[in-house]
Amino acid sequence: MRNILAKTTSTAFALALSLQSTGVLAELDKPIMDPAVPFDQMDTNLYNHLKSTPSTYEAWEYGYLPARCHDVAESWENKSPYDMEVYNVLYEDCDTPWVICRHKDSPMSIEKMIDNFGRLPVRLRNLVRVQLAFPARSEGQLLAYAFSDLGDIVFTGDMYPYIRFWFHEIGHIRDANVNASAGDYSASDAWLTEYDKDEYICDAYAKTNNAENFAQEVVVAGYDKIVPGGIAGLVPNYEDIYNQFVNVQEVMGDELCPGGTCDRLFEDDHIVCMGPDAGCVTERDHIAARDVRLASRGEEQPHICDFGL
Ligand SMILES: [Zn+2]
Q: Which branch of life, at top level (predicted)?
């Protein structure tokens, strides 16, 4: 079980490939609409119509962090948990803080993360537990992944100018939690029936598999709700994907609309010590606790989204 918890990126990609080859996450065979949805033109309009929510934040005491932040730093990004900064972020529309873990060398400042996240409708923020920011894995690469079963999102590289990627990653979380015990909604008959009503998919990235198509449609659905003129104002042939994004809007309801207040989907992650050098745990206890944790998470497979520009 433990070896599924990939120690390296290549293991994770190999896993994704093996799932694709079994047909679980197969590439889609529908053609891409022409023109495709110009996702790269969405961010400016989204920023113009999503106001930043006033907020305050404070750093955690050194030495402790959410277990997810420890384990992603160590096992996924090959970084030291001791280099993680942890913050509680309190927005004025919610009396519960969100936790953000930022590697000290992330190109994305904590202020920019707070700004982007605070622009999202609060009912969409409800789906998120912990957010993490790391340096890009390689020059110019933008890669994000979501542990969609528990609402945790990892960003590598400077995602700040691309608020659409926040919608996309939260789309994966929604996909996994429409009916968590039944598996991803994007693999359900309900979704595939709507998908089959359309002749096209929205862009090349959506072609990757049903889950990525659904996440891209969440971006389309959100844009359509938030920006005046909707998706029709961005792409004239929007009816090519009409049944898909309207279904997302029906499934997500007011999560895509600004306003309201918070009602969080997930409990907070539990807190662990950074490690023996932080003085809060012995090395033996730290490793024992980590191994129990990793074993219990053996099945976890995040959706890895490569937004390389
Ligand atoms: Zn994705």
A: Eukaryota
CATH number at residue 52: 3.40.390
What is the domain extent for residue 64?
2-22+32-260+281-300
DSSP readout, 73-139?
Answer: IIIIS---GGGEEEEEEEETT-SSPEEEEEETT-SS-HHHHHHHHHHS-HHHHTT--EEEEE--SST
Ligand 1 centroid–CA 208 distance in Å is 9
Gap from CA of 171 to ligand 1 centroid (Å): 8
308 lies in some domain: no
pTM given for the model: 0.90
Dmax of the chain from CA atoms? 61
Count structural domains, the chain.
1
CB atoms inside a 10 Å sphere around CB 276: 14
* The pLDDT value given to residue 28: 97
